[in-house]
Amino acid sequence: MNYTIGLLLTLIIVSKCSSLRELDFAQSLYFLFAYEDSRIPDPLFTAFVNRRVDQLNVICANETLSNATKVFCLSTNNSLSLLLDWLSSDNVYSQKNNTFKYLGTRDLHKFYEQTVKILNKVYKFNSIPVNVAVDYFNTSSLESVNIYHFPLLLTAYINDIKLIREYEETIGKSKRVNVKIVEMLNSLSIEAKNLTNDVDWEDNKEREITRIAMDQCLQRFKVLMKIFRKNFLQYS
Fold it and tell me: Total structural domains in the chain?
């Protein structure tokens, strides 16, 4: 059964975003910093791509996949590898006098988004157990989110923050990442998973209480992410 969270739209804080979640999130943190035309540091973007490659490799190791799917996986892996090679080369130039030489990082982001979009279509077509919905949600405006997606969305953001923290540590800016907020997000993730696992969906009263409880979790998530971002920008 498909249940959604929220009494009113004003209680819902998760919406579909125009770009991938990790890019949208990173851009919201680094927009004050001068990172070429992309607003996202190349090492962090590289970490996002490598994570996608690792996920793809795990899935493609499944011997039950059809030959066509295996060929597609190989093709997608080659596309992502090309992206990584280009990021590590001298062919990416920053914006200068409103012109680009060769290929700008913004073009690489677009190529990455298009590749992931195609990849997610194949995942869904083959019923591969990857929840692609969390790739296209953010915390900026109002739309209901499936009650099963919220714990997965929390996990996705926590994993994004982990990569951001690893990058910040390499440049000596670890204070930007508020560890206490990360711990609170981890606790909230466990709480949200327990809410979805321990409810009797056939009991109307219990289902309603769970939905309201999840609304509270959503509001807390919104506040925690605002605090995290404020703390991050504070150390610019």
Answer: 2
